[in-house]
Amino acid sequence: MSPLMNLLSIGDCEFIRVITNPMISRALIVGALVSLCAALLGVILVLKHYALIGHGLGEVGFAATSIAALVGLQQYPLLVAIPLVCLSSVLIMRIDQKSGVGGDVLIGMFSTAALAVGVIASVFTTGYSGVYNNMFGSIYGLTNVDVWVSAALSVIVVGSFCLLYNRLFSVTYDETYARATDMNADMYQFIISLLTSVAVVLGMRVMGAMMISSFIIFPAMTARRLAKSFKGMLICAVITALISFFTGMVISYAVESIQLPTGACVVTVSVIIMLIVYGITSIRYKK
Amino acid sequence: MKENTLIEVRDVSINYGSGRQDAVEHVSLDISKGEILAIVGSNGSGKSTLMKGILKLMPITCGEIERKPGLRISYLAQIHTTERDFPATVREIVLSGTRAKHFSPFYSASQREKAEKAMKMLDILPLKHVNVSALSGGQLQRVLLARAVAGDPELLVLDEPCSALDPSITHELYHLFCRLRDENGVSITIATHDWDFVRGHADRVLVLNRTVEYLGDLSGWSGMEAQHTCHH
């Protein structure tokens, strides 16, 4: 069947049959929830010029997953990855604040060191196919644990954004003012770091370590161009992220015959959306 | 601490890392309710450092700073400290200055009311839904002052708030500072180079040159005449 025919056949009963397949429904649920969380966190990270932390942590997550396999926990990679990535993000943040070493240097050091450790650990277990899966995601290999952890993460992220909206805005817009008015800016940064870590680990399972920072950066950049308020940017980023994820999913599934990797499809769709938005808005600005 | 005192600074020194010379040395002062205290001194005299110490933005090396318990402080810095190209409307920024009594999602009705009042006082209600990147320097400084006012402060700390603004806007802001003191009883501590403001509005003046050269009312300072001649 040609890819186009395959795409068209996802209609009516076929559509129901596809999305009720547990493998696919898990992919859809985890992917959508992680897109949502990464888009919200991404707005803050992009505005604070800290977006590459996602990329660095993705590679730490890759190392952690390889180490999990090495110590016999390949069934429970999250058990090793979540604590290790959280620890790294807190370390990066603390060293950045306390010493003069810049955030870019720290992220570079952590990510390349983690990459090296991860590759070596993989050689002893899964070999290079494991490296490939961890690097570019294995969206149909998600488990029920992934579903529950991503549901819990979404509740926590959306809950924090509702409850701490005022404080998160202040810390993002003007950290000095926030500190001067007795706000505990460090605590809010700590919360953002931890939530980002969990989102990165889950996103890595879907998108792969190499692609996860796109979940954080592209929706936020598209939204920044469209929105004139902070609230508007958050809403815009979430919508863009969900559209990119579902479109990318459908494309990669529809052209199954050549096995397009889902992560790469989602990233390509989000890049195209961003380019279209920048194109249209720059024509509008010129007028 | 006396009843009318908001902040008491006792023998405070601040330096930027061990081994370096103190930027501020053995400074003692107190800030009282409803007064305008002007901190003057040349560049590098430690004005900004002292203010950062008072605001807890910098750790003090020795000495002690005591605050009235639960003191509400707001702050307005020199212009351009915040990013101009930021997706936020004027209303969002002013709202962010309000303080919540309880932990509630988003903003409470009383917070929205305070923000509205502050925007009205600073005459920026028509700009409410405008993005900050579209504002002029003077407008932005009014927005940031509205954010400070929305926090219902007892003490407003101003660090050269009018540098880089043109004279008519500067006058307007000075007028607003005085209104805040007279109508809301806000105490104002301002670092400034503007002797006209000091002469016209300050209740007390602190002359700083790493250490306190003079603290008291204006008429008592012998250096006043020198400043007067050198500025005119």
Write a short abstract of this structure.
With 287 residues, chain A is mainly α. Helix content of chain A is 82%, strand content 0%.
Describe this protein's structure.
- The complex is a heterodimer of chains A (287) and B (232).
- Chain A is 82% helix and 0% strand.
- Chain A contains 14 helices and no strands.
- In chain A, helix 5 packs antiparallel against helix 6 and helix 12 packs parallel to helix 14.
- Chain A is globular and about 55 Å long.
- Chain B is an alpha/beta fold and 232 residues long.
- Chain B has seven helices and nine strands.
- In chain B, helix 5 links the parallel strand 6 and strand 7.
- The radius of gyration of chain B is 18 Å and the shape is globular.
- The N and C termini of chain B lie far apart (41 Å).
- The relative contact order of chain B is 0.19.
- The model of chain B has no long low-confidence stretch (mean pLDDT 86).
- The chains are: A mainly alpha (287), B alpha/beta (232).
- At the A-B interface, helix 9, helix 10 and helix 13 of A face strand 5 and helix 2 of B.
